[in-house]
Fold this sequence. Notes:
The protein is an alpha+beta fold. It has seven helices and 14 strands. The protein has two domains: about 5-170, no CATH class; about 180-255, no CATH class. The protein has a five-stranded antiparallel beta sheet, with no helix packed on it. It has a four-stranded antiparallel beta sheet with strand order 3-2-11-10. The chain has a three-stranded mixed beta sheet with strand order 4-1-7, with no helix packed on it. Strand 13 (about 185-190), helix 6 and strand 14 form a beta-alpha-beta unit. The protein is globular, with a radius of gyration of 23 Å. Mean pLDDT is about 85; it is low at about 145-150.
Amino acid sequence: MELTPIVCIAQDYIQGKIVDDLRLRQAILGLPDNKTEHLPGYLPLAPGMPVLLTENVASEIELSNGTRGIFRRFVYDQSPEDVRYQDKNFPPNSKFITQPKYALVGFPGCKLDDKLPELQSKIVPIAISEQTFLFDAKELLPENVSKAAKINKKTTKLSVKRKALPLIPAYSMTTHKSQGQTLGKIIVDLVMPPDPIELASVYVPLSRVKRLDDLLIIRSFEFATLQVKPSTAQIEELKRLDRIAQNTRKGFHFIV
């Protein structure tokens, strides 16, 4: 059965008014998540799709930034079709919505049984979140105009308030997002960017599973990646923690 992807489009506001200019709105919606406080402009989801929370919702029941779940469905108000903001990168049968109330997401690992035993299915409504970020409108100007006018950067910075769901698709995730998680089976890409390789960027993804059989490295990589040594700062931090541990032992009497 063919599923219809639903694309939830964020609502952006400048000075309390919704952004209605076509070019400006498309530019803001197209910003990467790391420039919008991790609220996506376009959120494409289909029932049964894995998702990731991008903020702390209820840490006491383990619904925190980075928690994985399974998307079930959107609950939303019907809005007039507006083809201006529909992105051609999505399948032609996609349904675009702009006024979601919340998303129903299943979180098998959360502790709802302890707090709300009547919710045995562990399906949680995830509500709209609000974040504010800056957008440089200078990016919309032709390069020759920007140079000729010598536009002041401060005057082109726009404060944008975004209302969107704090979710992202989670068929894959970054090393940073995987920290602290124990996963069943993983595929890891060890081809590193040209930046200096940190020990954590190698250790974290490779240690997300309990068994070597559950780990697959997706493509060939430089063996030197596995031989990276801790930085000076990391070594100093380990020494500091060792000193704290030694001082703690000296202050207490242990009975064996």
